[in-house]
Predict the 3D structure of the following.
Amino acid sequence: MPMIFPDNTPSISDQTSWQPTIWLLWLLSALFLFVWLAPYFHSFEKIAAFLTLHNILETLSVAFAALIFVTGCQSNIGARSLNIMLISCAFLAVALLDFGHSMSCPGMPLFVTPAGPSKAIAFWLAARFISALSLLLAIALKWKTLTFSYSRNLVFLFFVAYAVVAYWLILLHPQSLPKTYLSGTGFTTFKIIAEYAITLMLIAATILILLFIGNRHTDNDYSRNLFKAAAIMVLSELSFVVYSNPSDIFTLLGHCYKILAFYFLYKAVYSASVKSPHEKLQTLQNRGEIEMELAQITLSSIGDAIVTTNYDGTILFLNRIAESLTGWSQDEAEGKPLNEVLHLVNQMTRKPLINPAFLAVRDNKTVIDEPNNHSLLISRANKEHAIEYTASPICNAEGYVLGSVLVFHNISEKFQLMEQISWQAGHDTLTHLPNRTLLSDRISQAIAHASRQQHLLLVCFMDLDGFKAVNDLHGHELGDKLLIEVARRLINVVRSNDTVSRLGGDEFVLLLNEVNTMDEVDILITRVLEEMARPYQIAQQTLKISASIGMTVFPFDSSDTDTLLRHADQAMYQAKQKGRNRFHLFDASMDLQVQEHHQLLSRLEQAVSNKELLLHYQPKINLKTSKVMGMEGLIRWQHPEQGLLEPLDFLHLAEDSNLIVDIGNLVLHEALSQIAEWHAAGHDWVISVNIAARQLKQHDFINNLQTILAQHPGAPASMLELEILESSALADLEHVRNIILTCQKMGISVSLDDFGSGYSSLAYLRHLPVNTLKIDQLFVRDMLDDEEDCALVDGILQMARVFKREVVAEGMETAAHGALLLKLGCTVAQGYGIARPMPAAEVADWAAQFKPDPRWQNYPAALVGWGHIATETNKVQAELLLYKV
């Protein structure tokens, strides 16, 4: 018969009778039979139905389960047994699953998914099954010691994985699990069978304990407490088998039995993991080797490497970690000179180090490794380990030095991590080129060198032409590969003493040192442009791009590091404006233009602060019913000197700075304030406002929008519409899609502005769940005179019907435009043919006196010969025009 219990010599208390255990189990069994056979006690039923009491009981069970895990896994200093590891790690899973059960009971708040009987029962069955299985295995398996940490880790990881999978299935994929509870029907057959199966497993475990107990080595605290735990678990599971609803007396009784069983199981694990080893140590106290054994256990279980020597440096002891790092076993190293086993060198100079253990003996003081010593241990197999150490003398009671103890630990991973962090701080992770931080340092050094040697220093700012189109067409992964190839070519084309840096995106900086003449500058930059323009073969794709380079030359431009980069950047934009695939040399007049731009931008910032920006509103009208459908809020600048300025006069100044975000927030505040005012007056006009691309890309856009909405409680979110430019949406489809869905959940509608001006396609429109399409006013304005524009408008309308999108036509300038829009099926429009943008104070009066133009309904007279656009042939032409790139 296998030994399933620890072979411990019991104390006198271990030899006591089993009579108290039997009496306890008889008493608990009698209580169960009494509750089963007697009528229900309604007062107890009320207590059992109390959610707080249930949570207290479950919390106690979770606490005991966690205590079992901690005691079984952490209390033993030496090797742990498989049996104890099975129980303790299983009860970590039980603690996690019981917590999920407690959080899932009806009446509890949302725990990832709503609480309910099926969810709570699923957690319950998962916890009970693993507890019963682990108990049965721990009893049935032979008592075995796990000497390797990876074995213990495998047991631990198995039960953690079990809990994680259970959470994943129950919370995220409950439909894949068998039904345990049906509303109106109650518990399913599966649930009942599962409870009986768990009960049978526990009964089998209880019987096994009785069969294996029978000698002085198995009749101990561990076996008796394990027997009590298994037997009481049987009673607990029987209580949950026979209960009729989650709030009857059997629920309370089952929870109490479960906690009591966990308590005795904790005592069993404590006895095997703590009490018995402790008693065994006590029995060895009268033996001479006790101190050595304790020292060996302590030193072997310390996470640092430990080496002890005698006075002359001969090795006495190595612990397990020291054996691993040096490559010498205790038997091999004992009696050998310390330097033969512990080979220490300086990592930088590779020169041998004086062993700190010798210094500790010589000076009779502790020697601590300095942080910058770069100590390196070379093992017996020539493997190198960066280490930190402490060496101390070993003295007797009289103070005489007997030897030394050297404690050290491996910091190779830490050292490598520090090197990696240091490298990453100065390099781009994609191309491995220097980043802006390292580049600034290189420029400073290059300026000093150029000043000393009286050479020219060339700072070049390079931007790739057509890279965005490659990213949009082929995806970011291929774009990254293209950037890596660009970096490789740049490194190959420049000289070894030059620097190539990537600032981010498709922006690179070349730092060309020791240039003698401007003719040499032309040769170098021309060679770079030619190399960049050569076709690229990336992932079986042939790509063609070019580069625009702006450059400035030190000492002709005797500026500091940041200014040199800024001047090169400005020159690069000039190169792009001149046609791309070329270079441009910085000049001072360009800098004056930039300064003027900054001054205008600063004045616009002041206008925002002084509240000189305001909204005018242009109505949107239903051409059939003449109903005002809403307003578009359009920004205006009431300039103190120049009068009322339209967006084209100033908004472009802010588009490349965060000022556009401040202006966008101002527009949202103004629009919501006006919504609240009109809503209070009985005008439920939806106000739409434009959202700039830069504001849309802000990571906190949604949080900011929610904050602004909260500041205007009188403005319903359903009366706000956000207009997103089609070109902005194309920049990052997935990001914009997530924003649209979040806004719609908040009640805010979203429209796609200037639709048709970008890369309109069926797939693109399907990916963006906008509420409304706003047809670009250029197509609407020219559709009376341009057959292609009219066909394009008709194609957009047909596509909108297919995708069930609302449509607003911008640019309705005349009654003839309105008539043709109605003929094509577009009912909502805005434009000068209806009304010009007006201040908020004028909107109510305009709406009160507004009358539709009767010519909108006069189709034949107004269509000017364009009625044929509705034919099938031209519909196909319209679609082909619409989907062109």
User: Anything to note?
Assistant: The chain has 34 helices and 28 strands. Confidence is low (pLDDT under 50) at residues 9-16, 860-885.
